[in-house]
Structures
1.
Amino acid sequence: MDGMSPDTSPRHDWSLAEIEALFNLPFMDLVARAHAVHAANHDPNAVQISTLLSIKTGGCPEDCAYCPQAQRYHTGVEAQKLMDVDDVLERARAARAAGASRFCMGAAWRGPKDRDIPKVAEMIREVKALGMETCATLGLLGEGHAQALKDAGLDYYNHNIDTSPDFYGEIIHTREFQDRLDTLEGIRAAGLKTCCGGIVGMGETRAQRAGLLQALANLPEHPQSVPINQLVPVPGTPLADADRIDPFEFVRTIAVARIVMPKSIVRLSAGRQQMSDEMQALCFFAGAGSIFMGEKLLTTGNPDVAHDHALFARLDLHPMQGGDEAQEGGTVHAAVLECLDAGTA
Ligand code: SAM
Ligand code: DTB
Ligand code: SF4
C-alpha cells in the first residue's frame, strides 16, 4: 500500500516518508482525501463533546516546556490541592447540562501516588453514575493504578506522547519518551480506552509533526481518541514566544491524523480560542470529530459555551453521545438541541 490509497483499514506500519508524502499533498487534495476517509468511517456532522476539569492544579515537579502548571516556571498559576469529590460532581453536572458526554479530570502530577488513587476512583465512580463517560489524565501510572481506575468505571485515560521522539528531548527532560509508552501499555492492558495525541506549534518541523503522527499510528493499537493540541503559549513558560503555526499547517496535521488513524476520533483540542470559526470548520471538514467545550481547558481559556453552541448550529453539527459507539447514532443532548432549534429558528 502506498499511503495514498483510499483503503481505510487501520495500519500500524506507516513509514515517515509515507506520512510526509501526505503532508506534502496539495492542500485541497489532502483535505478532500481526509474528508473522504472521515465520511467513510464516521458521521461527518457529529462532534463528540468533552469537558475538562483540573482536579489538582499547578505545583508540578516536571519541566514540560509548554506547561503553565510546572512549578519551576513563573506563570501565575496558583497551586491547589486535590479537589473534593462534591465540588467535582457539581462541575460534572454543569458540563452535562451544557451538552458534554464525557468528563475529563486532569491532575498536575508527574503521576499519582498510591494514596491519591482511592479519592480519584471515587470521583470516577460518581461522575460515571451521572451517566457520563469518564476520562482521567494524571500522568505516569504506577503498578496497579490503571486497573484500579478501570475498576472504578474509568472509560478513557489521556496520556500524550506530545511530540515526535526526535524533538521530545527539546521539550521535556524529567521523563523519557519510553516512560510514556510504558504508561500507554498499562492503559491498554487494563482494558481502558486510550486518549493519546500531542501538541503542534512548539517549533517542530513538518517532518517532526509527521514523526508525531507516525509514532501514534504505529502504536500497537490506534488510540481511540487522538487530541491534536495547538500550543497555547503561556507567559513564563519557555515556549511563551514560540511562533504561531500557520493555521493551514495545523489543518494539514488534523487531515493527516485523520488519514493514518481512520477509525480514531481526532480531537480539535487546545488552542481553539486562538482559531477563527472558519478555521475550526475546516478542521471539522478535515476530520476532527471531537472538542473540549467549557470556558476553561485546565488553566487556560477556551471559547464560550454559547459561542460553541452557535457554531454547531451554524455548521449543522450535532453532538455525538460518545466514542465509537456514536457512529451507530448518538443521542443528541436536550440542552444542545434547544440551542440548535434556536439557532435555526
Ligand atoms: N500531568 C499530566 C501529564 O502531563 O500527563 C496530565 C495533565 S497535562 C496538563 C496533559 C496534556 O496537556 C499535556 O500532555 C499536553 O499535551 C497538554 N498541554 C499542557 N499545556 C499545554 C499548552 N500550553 N498548550 C497545549 N497543550 C498543552
Ligand atoms: C489534551 O491533549 N489536551 C488537554 C487534555 N488533553 C488534558 C489539556 C490542554 C491543556 C492546555 C493548557 C491548560 O489549560 O493548562
Ligand atoms: Fe506537569 Fe503534566 Fe504540566 Fe508536564 S504537562 S508540567 S507533567 S502538569
Note: The chain is about 40% helix and 15% strand.
2.
Amino acid sequence: MNNCWFHKAKLGIFIHYGIYAVNGIGESWSFYNGTISYEDYMKQLDGFYADKFHVSAWGDLIERSGAKYAVLTAKHHDGVALFDTRFSDLSVVKKTPAKRDIVKEYAEEMKKRGIHLGFYYSLIDWSHKDYASVYAAGKVPDNPKEINPFTSPVDGKEDPEKWRRFLDFNNNQLRELLTNYGKVDLLWFDGDWERSAGQWGLPGFKDYLKSLNPDLIINSRLQGYGDYKTPEQGIPITRPEGDWEFCTTINGSWGYQPRDNQYKSLSQILRIFCDCISMGGNMLLDIGPRQDGTIDSRQEAILSGLGSWIREHEEAVYQTDEGIGTCYYLGGSTISADRETLYLFVYDNPKESICLKGLCNLIKKITVLHSGKELPHEIHGGVPWFEIPGTTWIRLTADDCHDLVTVVKVELEGKIKMYGSSGEAVTHNET
Ligand code: GLC
C-alpha cells in the first residue's frame, strides 16, 4: 500500500465515544466481565445527551493534531450504534435523549475538512439476541463455567440458523455505514477473535465489503484477511510485517474514564509517534469524549501539542518512508519519498555530536529542521576502495535542540545507500 493515502498519513485519531462515558466505565467489557450488570450498563442510555457535542470542535481538534484520518466507534461490542440503523433499535438515535445520528455529523465534518473517514465496527455484538449462538471455531469448552453467556450458548448447543441471521445483521449494518455516509475510507474491525475465519464467512465477507467500495482499507482484525496490522498499547519492538498502525490510549482507557489520571506526557506521545513512523507505521491515537461530547482538556492539549510539532517538521513526517534503523543511528529516522534526504530524530540533548554509521553517500548539507541552522560534520574512518564507509559525526549541542524532538535533516548526493556488512581486514592500502 506504499502509494496509498494510508501509508502517507502517519497519524490518525481514534475516538471511543459511547454510552460508557455516562458512568465513565470500561467500554462494553465492564458488563462482559461482570463489574456492572448488563441492565445497569444499559441504564446509561438514559444519561447519554450529547448536549454539548459540536462536531466542528472535534473537527478543529483533529485537524489541529495533524492527523490525516479519524476512526470513530460506530458500534462497540455493547451493540449500541452511534448511527441511525434500520436493523436494530439499539442506537443512540432511538434509545437515548441525544436522539442524534453522531456518525452522520462526524462523517460530514471529516469530509468537509479533507480528513479520511474511518469507522470502527465491532464484529462482536454482546447485545444481539442471535450473537451468542455458536462457539469460537465451533469448539464447545470442556468446562461449561468458561462459557461467557454474552459470547456463546451456555447449554453446549450451537444454533447455526441464528448465527446466519446474525451475519446478515452485521452485513446490513455495514451496508448502511458504507452507503449512507458518503465514501468511507477505512473500516476498523474489532473482536474477530471470538469466531474463526470460516464462521465470519471469510473471504466472502471481505469481498462483499469491497464490492460496496473497492477502495476501502480494512484493518487486520479480520482473521488474517485485513490490509494492515494493528498492534495495540505496547509499541512493537521488531517491525511488524507490511503496513501497520499502532493504536494507543492517551491515558490507560479507550473511553472516557474520569478516574484514570495516568496520562502520558506530550513528549512521551511524540516519542511513540516518531518510533512508529521510523518503523514504517502509523499511530492511531485515541481520545474518549465525555458523554456530552466535550473532550478533556488534557487530551486536547496532547493533540494540539502533537500538531504544532508536526507542522514544524512536516517534511520529515508525511510522505516519508521508514528510516535506517537503530544499527545505523541510535534514534528514530525517516527517509524522503525521493530517498535523497534522511531525517534523524534526536530524542535527548547530545553532549557534542550525534553519530551516524554506515552511510555510503556524500553529504550535501546538514541542517536543524525547525531552525534551518546548518550543522558541521566530520567523517572518520572508512575504506572507500573497499566500499566501507566511515562514521559521520554531526556537531549538535543542546542549544540547537527543539524542546521536544529535534529533527536533523541530512541532504544526500543521490539516493540513500547504507552499508550493511560486518567489515573486513583491509588487505591493501591506497594511502
Ligand atoms: C480492544 C478492546 C476494545 C478497544 C480496542 C481498541 O480490542 O476490545 O475495547 O476498543 O481494543 O483497539
Note: The radius of gyration is 25 Å.
3.
Amino acid sequence: MERLEMFCYQCSQTAKGTGCTVKGVCGKEPTVARLQDNLIYAIKGMSAYLYHARELGYTDSEIDGFLEKAFYTTFTNVNFDAESLVKLAIEAGEMNLKTMKLLKEAHIKTYGEPEPTKVQTGTVKGHGIIVTGHGLKALEELLKQTEGTGINVYTHSEMLPAHGYPGLNKYKHLAGNLGKAWFDQKKLFTEFPGAILATSNCALIPKEEYRDRMFTAGPVRLPGVKHIDGYDFTPVIEMAKSLPELEEKSGDVTLTTGFSKSVVLSLADKIKELVENGKIKHFFLVGGCDSRNKKAEYYTEFVKLLPEDTVVLTLACGKFRINDLELGDIEGIPRLIDLGQCNDAIVAIEIASALSELFGVGVNELPLTLMLSWMEQKAVAILWSLLALGIKGIYLGPILPAWVNEDILKVLKENYDLKLIGSPEEDIKNILKK
Ligand code: SF3
C-alpha cells in the first residue's frame, strides 16, 4: 500500500504538509496555508507556557478564549483571508505576552524572584537524577521527594534557570547543570549513569542505552519510556538508587543564571551613567531556541567578536552558545546576563521598556539589538509578541521559519525591518555604525 510521507493537517488529504507550495485539495493559497501554520505554531507555544502556569494554579480565561478562537480559525474551511490571519498572529503575540507574564508571576510567587546564582557543571559522588525541560513544578516535587535520600539532582538545558529561584535553590542536593541545549541529550544521557526525567517539550526519542532509566512527566511521552502520572516520582527515585553512583568530577566552567528584572533594574542608575559616559555603547539580546544546525555557531562567533563596551542579555536554549564565555564586566555590570528560560522573554521585554523610560526614548531608539536564534513553536509565539510590541530590526537566524515564503518575508521586512543574520563581522559592523 502506498504511504504518504507527510500528512497535511490543512487539507487532511494530500502529503504536501507544512511546506505546501501549491494550491492543495484544501483549496487554500500557499500564503494562507502558511499563515495558518504560523498561527498553529504560535498557539502551540502559548499552550506550553499556559500549561506550566496552570500547573502552579495560575490561569486566565481571556487567554483560554483566544486559544479557542485561534484553533477554530485554523479549520480547513473557515478562514481564507491572509490579512485577518496576520492580525490574528499579532493578537497571538499579544496573548503570548499575557501568557508569559502569567507564567512569570506563577514562578515568582511560588519560588521567589530569581537571584544571580553560580551553577556547577560537574558531578558529585552519589546517586543522581538529571531533569530536562521547562517544568519547574515537576523539578520542585522531585527535589522534595529526594531530600535526605542521598540522591543528587542535576538540571539540563532549559532547566538551568531553576537554580536562580530561591525556592528551588534552597535544596542542597540540587547539585548542578550538565550538558547544554536540548539536542545533546542522546550523548549526555548515554554517559550519565543515573535516572533521567523529561518534563516538557524538546525531549528526544531515547537511545536504547538509557531508555529503561528514563521517565517522562506532564505532557511528555516517549516510546518505551515509563510515564509518571501526577507528581509521585517514587519510580524515578527507586531507579536512581538501583543505578551506579556518579563520580566526583569538577566541571569545566561555572555558569551564572538568575538575573531577574529587579536585579537588572537595581543597576539602572549605574547603567545610565555608563551609557552616558560612553562606557556601554550597545546592548544585545542574544538567545532563542537552539538547534544543532552548524550555522547556529554564528551566535558564539557573534558574541566573541563584540567589542568590550557591549552588554549581552541572553535567555532560552540559545544561551548555551555563549554562557561559557568569559565576558567580564563593565565597572561591575556583568557583560553577560542570563535572564532564564524562553518564557522569560517577558523579563527581557520589561527590562527593555524600563530602559526606554530611563533614557526617555522608544524601545526602537534604544541602543539595543535583538539577535534571535530560531527553532520551534515557542519561538514563533515569542517572535509575534515582539512584533506585536512594534519592535523593529530583529535579526533572525540561522534559517528561516518553514512557514515563511517570499510574500510573508516581504511583509515582515517592510513592516518590521526584520533581518536575516549574515556574517557576524558584517552584522556587528552594521549594527554598531548606527
Ligand atoms: Fe526552545 Fe525547546 Fe529550548 Fe525554551 S522550547 S528554548 S529549544
Note: The longest helix spans residues 82-111.
4.
Amino acid sequence: MQLQIAPSILAADFLNLEKDIRILDEVADIIHLDVMDGTLVPNISFGFPVIEPIAKIASKPLDAHLMIVHPEKYFERFASCGIDMLSFHLEAARRDGTDPCELLAAIRRLGMKAGLVFNPDIPLENVYPYIGSADYLVLMSVYAGFGGQSFIEESYSRLAALKREVSLRNPQCLLEVDGGVTPSNSARLRSLGADILVAGSSVFLSGDPRGTIAALRCD
Ligand code: DX5
Ligand code: ZN
C-alpha cells in the first residue's frame, strides 16, 4: 500500500484556513484534525465550529484525532459532520473505565474507520489486544498535546515491533505515525511499515506546503 500523507491543520494559518484546506485538498491524501480538551492533554485546540466548515469544503478523507476524555459522547456528532476516520486515546478509555473494543465498534457502526492512539510511554503490549478491532493504530512519536515537538527516536523501534504484531494479528490494520514527522525521517518510517504519516509543523512552517508534502512521500 502506498504511503499516505495526512497533514495536521494544527500548524495552519487559522486566519486563512480556507486557503490551507484548499491546498491540502489538492495535494494531501488525508486531512488530520487534532481535537484537544485541556484535560486528557494540557492544551485546547478547536472543535465543531472549525471542523464543520472544513468538512463542507474538503473532499479528501478527514481524520479526527480525539485527545479528549469521554470521546464516545461525540462519536455521532463527528459522524454526522462527515468525519471518515475517528481515533481516540487508549489513555482516555482507561481513565474513563470504558472498553476500547466497544468504542472501536461504536465508531465502525457509525460508518467511520476506527483508530486507537497511544502515547510514547504506553507499553506496546497494552495495545496488542485491540489490534484485531481497529482499522488503524496511531503511534504517537511525541507526547500528544502540542505541535512542533521533536520526534522521539525510540518510535522507530516501537513502529517496527508494532508492525510485526499487526502483520500477525490483523494485516488490514493501518499504522499511522503522528508527531515530529519531517521529510528527513519519512523514508525510514515508511520502510519500517508506516502507512500514514501525520505532519503539522514541517508542512505549514516550511513556507511551501505543496513541496513539503511531495518530499514527505519520498518517492
Ligand atoms: C500532537 C498532534 C499532532 C501534531 C503534529 O498532539 O497529535 O498531530 O499536530 O504536529 P507536528 O508535525 O508539528 O509534530
Ligand atoms: Zn494528531
Note: The chain has nine helices and eight strands.
